[in-house]
Write a structure and sequence with these properties.
The protein contains four helices and two strands; from the N terminus they run ββαααα. By secondary structure, it is mainly α. The N and C termini lie far apart (56 Å). Bound molecules: FE2/S2 (inorganic) cluster.
Length: 90
């Protein structure tokens, strides 16, 4: 049993099963199904490994596998607001 994502305890078998039995064809689908790449390291180590498995299983090149999309906040949020401080304008 080869652990691919240490943060979320996901094995190579879990990923292969998701691809073969659940029809996952992208890293985003693996992320949603397995929580791949959602641990504290945010996929730093597991995403490249999962991309190689996905490429092998789907017959694509690793360069054809799209990396996960990141979504920054639409509007910049002051850190103090996140910490619970009151807005100076109120
Ligand atoms: S190893 Fe996968 S999120 Fe950290």
């Amino acid at each position: 049993m080869k652990i691919i994502c240490r943060c979320e305890d996901i094995t190579e078998e879990d990923i292969i099963k998701a691809i073969r039995e659940k029809g996952c064809t992208t890293l985003d689908e693996l992320k949603h199904l397995l929580r791949l790449g959602m641990g504290p390291c945010q996929g730093r180590t597991c995403i490249p490994l999962a991309a190689r498995i996905l490429a092998r299983e789907t017959g694509k090149k690793v360069s054809e596998i799209e990396l996960q999309t990141s979504r920054p906040p639409v509007v910049p949020v002051p850190l103090g607001l996140l910490a619970g401080e009151e807005d100076e304008n109120d």
